[in-house]
């Protein structure tokens, strides 16, 4: 890139390293997805195909970036947690942020037709992203609790709202009015008494969001035993080494797959069973 | 996004405004495009279809972000210049950086099949991006001169290199050896004497890169006169207003189209003819 | 600083370079100077001795940092302008910011007794500082206009206020009430009609603040001609070279002194006569 | 500060909050103290009066900023640790950095004559400062271990060096040559065999540096019992409330004093006995 008298302009490129020893959380959000869902007739309140497409894109990101140890998705957003000691791209913020956001976007467009096969993509969807640093394991847990609590709050509201509209015949304005000021238990009651819906029996995907975790694979699993996660496709990293795992390849590697779950991550059980996620290295 | 005791984690999201009164240049680069071009059999030294796809993605970005007044592309990179007074997203760095990089990526994947119709995309291409601030018009000009000089240097080298390999029968190692230490005039000479190629007669797209500029449209043009740019598709902004141009819509708007050129932007002529690009507002 | 297994902690020291090609303005403000002025019986509305002490500290800063081309002071604050191409300490923000703020503070305490000889300093005064980047000459001028306009507004208010209190016998509450809602001309009128004070005849120091400029010295001046500035002490830089001017010493140096003025810097005259201040290098 | 058409220049003042939940360490270093010590005839290898002056300045800083829970000083530097949840000045970096550095400087100059009474200060000493964020208690401990290990390494070298020069009659060049390549045990041996000095019996202040800690005061101490720290002057915070402790004053406050020690802070004992220093709030 050098070689000319103009090359001095590179001096304006300033360094942007992220503080070492902190957990990076990179959150991606759909840009104007309200319109996107309208124009592509996403089902209300949740379109499982669109959510599966998000999960697919997130999985592609995790397969490429080995420093990501956990991801959580809901609606049109996905959060990725990098292990504390991650040193990819020397922790340069713009490089990490854009490469991950770009790959996620690419996968979303690339795989659209696999999930919404009868709904051609009409225009280019896009996402924004940000990196937030969290200095301690406890605040990382609170971050993911915040997102899963948000999933619950939004999904309960949306479920009742669309039941009122689609089954109850209310306008959207009326449905909002019906829900104004109601607390959680009242929303459950409306769902059950008017529509015979037991909220807690709705699919866990909608109520809990999507959790992607890197799990070690034993030989038994590789030779065909049934895995527990709902999407059992193991994804060995057969692709050429990316920047982020060159080191890892030097030592014999434990095979891992990225598994998808829809369970609680607010309580201790998940974290106790995956203590490596918040470990120091 | 609020509503729970965990919402305090938002306090860790720090502001990242870019210095006002400066020109932002956002440069996007292909991630691992050497491999991408190999796996999809891009033509050497230049694949016009792949370059046109880059131009298409850049045009989509400019149609969405009205604050971008100039773009320059070569190979697998594209640089976007925002007008000095741009205030989109309150100049928040991560928001601007990721939204633009994501839209570019999305368009690249979305439109791939239009340009490389007989070469199905095998996996997800991705890009990285960065924003660099330039405080004065003169250094902005030097930035774009730097990129166009780079285009020239790389293209001359690659043109001779691939002539030696594809027509001259050299191995790639031999071709690099042949070129080692040669200056520009020697490369011209090799091209001409051995392969009968006059470098200066090669397509301007390869020698000069791609320049995208927003040009005002007179009524005559709208009703069918032939425009001068090589890709004459006018692109009125018929899409719903994006964040970046809500203000603009309030006043009667001069219609503009984004035009593509392959000409010199190092000399004064281009800038004299487009003085609005470096204007203060 | 190395030599132990703990030295890795230096990795947490992140770079903080300031954008090249911009004008740095470093503004220092007195910390809790309301109390300081009370406890040391500063005269109201202005204590010339205290202002002279501020000027002295600012001059010491300019004599040490040759990249500073202009300073403006009023009340308990001082702003320093660095030339656009300043590269001291590789433009590291914290280094520049703290070294200048520290030297200013040091000089203020060190020289206190020269100006307030009969008022011993009772405790440690301190200052805060910040650096703001301005990308163009015109906004730099607006910055200094902002400060001088502020000087005028504050001084006019304070002059009438303290006349009402000290000569007019009002309480401070009454004086604020008298001034509430008054415009500039009314304040002038109160001063003149009640106290016989023509505001425009008050010392320029109080009305215009202090302007420190580096002026070239001709030989004639050195051998004894009367300079025009109100504080004529020439201050050749006889001290050992500081970091900031090591380069300058290699070439024959034009002798300069830092001169103090109390004149208008909002209009063009000052800037036309000192065009080097906003020059590119 | 508003009130004029120029006030827009404030828009160039960008926010600079420090990441919450991290430990700030603010380190102050003497600027050109080699020259300062020469010009004021500091004793070699250590001038106890100058070190006491540093301690005094650091104590003044701790008395003003209640969020500082630990300070460590050696030679011409001092490091201040803020408690993890410190929120002074909304964690604005420049404000914290400059106010502390300025107060330290002010105290150093203000109190000079108390410690170096027969050596008038010839010119203005100054300091630079920086803030480094550490995300976890363990790395904070490693930071302070790094500084105390540095104290030991430097002091051992300097002690032997100056013994060779002042008592052994070597030139400084010869003394450096004598020490080149020697390890710690050899330096101890030189000191003992040639000069009869048992390094471990030298004053702890020189070997361990200065540790300032906020200790709770029991009534017994207040009424006159002998405290254990070597500088027994209790420093109740009788001064008007500073910004940093306005909140604290609302609840009944445990009286604390800042105590000075010269003991080991690398091992566990100190930290076990002062667990509040690294606590979360």
UniProtKB/TrEMBL annotation, chains A, B, C, D:
Enzyme Commission code(s) on record: 2.7.7.79
Domain tRNAHis guanylyltransferase catalytic positions: 7-135
Broad enzyme group: transferase
Keywords, sorted A to Z: GTP-binding, Magnesium, Metal-binding, Nucleotide-binding, Nucleotidyltransferase, Transferase, tRNA processing
Cofactor(s) the record lists: Mg(2+)
Entry's Gene Ontology molecular function annotations: GTP binding; magnesium ion binding; tRNA guanylyltransferase activity
Binding site for Mg(2+) 2: 29, 76
Catalytic activity, reaction form: a 5'-end ribonucleotide-tRNA(His) + GTP + ATP + H2O = a 5'-end phospho-guanosine-ribonucleotide-tRNA(His) + AMP + 2 diphosphate + H(+)
Binding-site residues for Mg(2+) 1, renumbered to this chain: 29-30, 76
Superkingdom per UniProt: Eukaryota
GO BP: tRNA modification
Cofactor note: Binds 2 magnesium ions per subunit.
Residues in Thg1 C-terminal domain copies: 139-266
Residues involved in GTP binding: 29-34, 75-76
Region (Disordered): 219-250
Job description of the protein: Adds a GMP to the 5'-end of tRNA(His) after transcription and RNase P cleavage.
Record-stated family: Belongs to the tRNA(His) guanylyltransferase family.
Name of this chain's protein: tRNA(His) guanylyltransferase
